[in-house]
Design goal:
By secondary structure, the protein is α/β, with parallel strands linked by helices. It has a single domain, classed as Ribonuclease Z/Hydroxyacylglutathione hydrolase-like (Metallo-beta-lactamase, Chain A), CATH 3.60.15. The N and C termini lie close together (6 Å).
Length: 326
């Protein structure tokens, strides 16, 4: 094992879950399918549930972006969306084995959906804890301090008990964090946003949200191309369908087909699509998944018709709580 990646929040823009009426409709459908799948006895319910993919039963999650990466010697947290609260609760139960840290949090950018959970990251308040914040943006310290102030939050930054450190990173310069090498690369977003490549033990993870993917070719990507090269797992922004992407130009989010094209060209082994729209219900994301499958298969047919073959690419749409081991 080199890297374990866990997704604590995969929603974009703001925390969002289906309303009770939608859940009632969804549960009704799951129960109806129990019988159409050939099951009859209540003792078979567990077997039926286990035969389904997690999102088919529980959806994709409500929390905004937060990803945890664990290596044999270290831990790195990417973004402080609302998903960081559940990570914080796990940390406080003592099940991480990390004690009082140090905790390392890389911020891609500072839109609300990526910082909303930081005031609920409990280690910030614990004496003796050590929390390190990283970002390319030179205003890093000012922006983090600004979250912990009235009227946005009742506890001022000066009252936090942890030892908090700020590290402004240089673009495209690799940094060593325990046994991980981390390198920030620029994404395509209206406000400056930096993706991160995390490498350890011959494995590599590329964090690519929020990005619109307006730079597609190797020439256009230029010095940011290494973010997508020699990668085992890429986490890519897929908030929109292709028609929506055209309608919402310069909003800073992409479509799965864009990420799939990059993955095919660069030989990326696995892609997870995320940053699900706050208005996207389970059926909506499933429809995005269907469209992506249709597109992938069309590319396979085109390659076959020209006596070529596509490199193998695994892909799926991420859900909250998903864990991948590289």
């Amino acid at each position: 094992m080199s890297l374990t990646i866990k997704f604590w929040g995969v929603r974009g823009s703001l925390p969002s879950a289906p309303p009770p009426t939608d859940w009632t409709y969804h549960v009704e459908g799951v129960l109806r399918n129990f019988f159409s799948a050939g099951y009859r006895d209540p003792s078979q319910i567990s077997r039926y549930i286990q035969s389904l993919e997690v999102p088919q039963v529980g959806g994709y999650g409500a929390a905004t972006t937060c990803v945890e990466i664990q290596s044999p010697k270290g831990q790195l947290i990417l973004d402080g969306g609302s998903g960081i609260r559940n990570l914080s609760e796990r940390i406080m139960t003592g099940t991480t084995g990390r004690g009082k840290g140090p905790f390392h949090i890389f911020m891609t950018h500072f839109h609300w959906d990526h910082v909303i959970g930081l005031p609920f990251f409990t280690p910030n308040f614990i004496p003796g804890c050590e929390v390190h914040y990283y970002a390319v943006q030179p205003e890093l310290e000012k922006l983090i301090r600004g979250i912990f102030q009235r009227p946005y939050f009742p506890v001022p930054f000066e009252a936090l008990k942890a030892k908090i450190h700020f590290h402004v990173m240089e673009p495209r310069k690799p940094y060593q964090l325990e046994d991980m090498t981390i390198t920030p690369y620029k994404l395509d977003h209206p406000d400056p946003c930096w993706g991160l490549k995390v490498e350890c033990g011959g494995k590599a993870y590329a964090h690519c949200v929020d990005t619109e993917g307006t730079r597609i070719t190797r020439e256009e990507l230029g010095e940011d191309l290494p973010l997508y090269q020699n990668v085992n797992l890429m986490y890519f922004d897929a908030q929109y369908t292709l028609p929506e992407l055209a309608e919402k130009a310069n909003w800073g989010h992409s479509a799965a087909q864009v990420g799939l094209d990059i993955a095919i060209r660069e030989g990326i082994q696995k892609v997870l699509f995320a940053h699900h729209d706050p208005g996207a219900r389970i059926e909506h994301v499933q429809e995005l998944k269907r469209q992506t499958k249709e597109y992938f298969e069309s590319r396979q047919r085109f390659a076959s018709a020209n006596q070529n073959s596509l490199p193998p690419v695994e892909w799926d749409f991420a859900h909250e709580g998903l864990e991948i081991v590289l």
